[in-house]
Amino acid sequence: MQYGLFELLNLLGALGFFIYGMKVMSEGIQKVAGAKMRNILSSMTSNRFKGVFTGFTITSLVQSSSATTVLVVSFVNAGLLSLTESIGVIMGANIGTTITAWLISIVGFKVKIASYALPIIAFGFPLMFFNRERLKFWGEVLVGFALLFMGLALLKDSVPDLKSNPQILEFLGQYTDLGYLSILLFVLIGTGITVVVQSSSAAMALTLVMANNGWIPFELAAAMVLGENIGTTITANLAALVGNVHAKRAALSHFIFNIFGVIWILILIRPALNLVDWYLVSSGSASPFVTATSIPVALSIFHSAFNILNTLFLIWFVNFIANTVTKFIKSTGDDEFQLEYISTGMMNTAELSIEEARKETVRMGEMTQKMSKQFQNLIVEEKPKKQKKQLKKIRDYEIMTDRMEHEISEYLMKVTSSGTLSDTSTIKVTSLLSAVNDLERIGDIFFQMSRDVERILKSDKKFKSKQIKNLQEMMELIDEALKIMAENLNTTNGDKSLEPAMIVEEKIDSLRNSLRKDLTKDIKKDKYDPQRDGWYKDLFHLCEKVGDHAINVSEAMTGEKERVLKEEMEAE
User: Fold this and answer.
1) Rg of the chain (C-alpha set)
2) Could you give the angle at the alpha carbon of 211 between the alpha carbons of 208 and 213, nearest 5°?
3) Structural contact between residues 198 and 209, judged by C-beta atoms closer than 8 angstroms
4) Is 93 helix (H, G, I), strand (E, B) or coil?
5) For residues 227 and 249, what is the distance between their CA atoms, to the nearest angstrom?
6) What is the pLDDT along the chain (572 residues), one digit of tens a residue?
């Protein structure tokens, strides 16, 4: 038993080595092509077939359908992909993950790449210390690639033989000859392993090693592969548990797609495996039912054919799947007061998480525009009931901007602390943090202004008609400033200019100075009411502060602050 425990620890250590190598390589690739991957995914809005190709390409690169699926769910959250478009990408991800099986079965077993791992690390490791980001990231890719195959080599030596070491996996040995029931059992085992290790690629490697050594027959290895297809959907669904309604729908659509595929292939499992056997034998290879070393290639053919056929069949039912999950997971109806894009379970791709935060910041900017409209309605509204409703809405928006500022900032800090951001992305995070802080201050100021108006409504004082007209003129300028600010927040193509924002800011300052002079004249003419005119003065000064914060946001989003930060980083 002591020997068995030691072997089990060896197996877990080898599996950890393999997963860590895959993580390092995957993150390196994401950092090398982070912006390109974002552009590829965000441009996949034309049709489902392009989406399939995109999902296949991304998964082939990062070698993890789970990572791609979580990434896709994040993009649905970020508003870059619709639910329908995301389903196409998820289908492509299922085909892309079959590349792992081919890589392991052909390269991992036939070419002893582990023997070249140390020279690869010797070449890649120094690159990680270069100042140029791209070289540094390529160094991570090479080191991760080498570690992955070193882990695979260790895994091959550590996986227990069911016959020689029954004390390790004895319970499995008892269920390998129960016919169709064994197949169902090993589907569950494949699902369980994938859920535990959180990587279908690692589970696939484990299955291929066991099959290659003849410890499980071809049909049970195929059953484990099918289980891994189910297990890989669990990762995205677990991530979506803490996400919003969009995340849950995208994750559920992945589960429906895979579970339906597994059901129909299980009905045809024996003919399908016999067809793979016939193909290999007719091609001059040994039968996987007879020769264990033929199983890895046979499994790769089975896995690829299954996912391609499942996609070819279900791609015509994308809208049906989208409608089904939409009906099953209904919107709560109060999305206006909830974070819509950010979900804390989706931190797998830190480089790409910035887009989620930016979209949430855009929404925060839109909320300040709504507060502006509500305030304008409030200063002219005469009906007490409607006044109360407007005051409540402004208060609700202020609570929401506070919450959004806290959660977006916290999210961005987590992204930064992950240590996987490039210098350029770090600067973007800093700019977003600055913008979010200014937007929260705008929300606070509008709430403060509503409190001032509430005080005058409760008193026996009223603003003069000229004062209301002046405030409306000021608010029109504020609306213009907020509109420009929102456009700058929402533009991603680099076509941003600070000049329009500066022109409006100067108009706001000029009007504030003019109103202040008029008020000074009233004091001299003894027409000044300390309470009423004091509130009035506070309001137009607060409006000018809103303008200041709006220009700060525009500076952050037009790259003015980014440029200053970049110069500071280069100087250091």
Assistant:
1) 30
2) 110
3) no
4) helix
5) 22
6) 444 667 678 777 876 776 777 677 766 766 665 555 556 655 554 567 777 887 787 677 655 565 566 566 656 655 556 777 778 888 887 787 777 667 666 665 544 555 677 888 888 888 888 877 778 888 887 888 778 767 766 765 665 554 455 444 445 555 556 667 878 888 888 888 777 766 666 677 778 777 777 777 888 888 888 988 888 787 667 656 656 677 678 788 888 888 998 999 889 888 988 998 898 888 888 888 888 778 888 888 888 888 889 888 888 888 888 888 888 887 654 444 455 556 544 444 555 677 778 888 888 888 999 999 998 888 888 888 888 888 888 888 888 888 888 888 888 887 777 666 667 778 888 888 889 999 999 999 999 999 888 888 887 778 888 888 988 899 999 999 999 898 888 876 556 678 888 999 999 999 999 988 888 887 776 676 777 778 888 888 899 999 999 999 888 887 665 555 555 555 55
| Residue 444 to residue 195: CA distance in whole angstroms | 45
Q: Report d(CA 432, CA 435) in Å as an integer.
A: 5
List of residues 6+ apart from 462 with CB closer than 8 A? 456, 532
E strand map for 45-89:
none
Token reading at 186: 């090993």
Question: What is the C-alpha to C-alpha distance for residues 391 and 451, in angstroms, rounded to an integer?
Answer: 8
Pair 356, 74: CB distance under 8 Å: yes
Tell me the CA distances in angstroms from 543 to 376, 383, 396, one per residue in order. 12, 24, 20
CB 15 within 8 A of CB 206: yes
Contact by Cβ (8 Å): 11, 160:
yes
- Alpha carbon distance 278, 295 (integer Å): 13
Count of Cβ atoms closer than 10 Å to residue 138 Cβ: 19
Q: How many CA atoms lie within 13 A of 570 on its CB side?
A: 8
Six token digits for residue 424:
């350029």
Q: How many CA atoms does the CB half-sphere of 256 hold within 13 Å?
A: 20
Return the structure tokens found at 3. 């020997």
Contact 344, 322 (CB under 8 A): no
Which amino acid is located at 431 in the chain? S
Structure tokens, 544: 């000018």
State whether the Cα torsion 46-49-53-54 is positive or negative. Answer: positive
Q: What's the pTM value of the predicted model, to 2 decimals?
A: 0.54
Six-digit token pair at 336? 């206006």
Token representation of residue 204: 């696939």
As a dihedral over the C-alpha atoms of residue 232, residue 236, residue 237, residue 240, rounded to 10 degrees, the angle is 170
**Two structure tokens written together for 489:** 């927040």
Q: How far apart are the first and last CA of the chain?
A: 58
Q: Is the four-CA dihedral 487, 490, 494, 498 of positive or negative sign?
A: positive
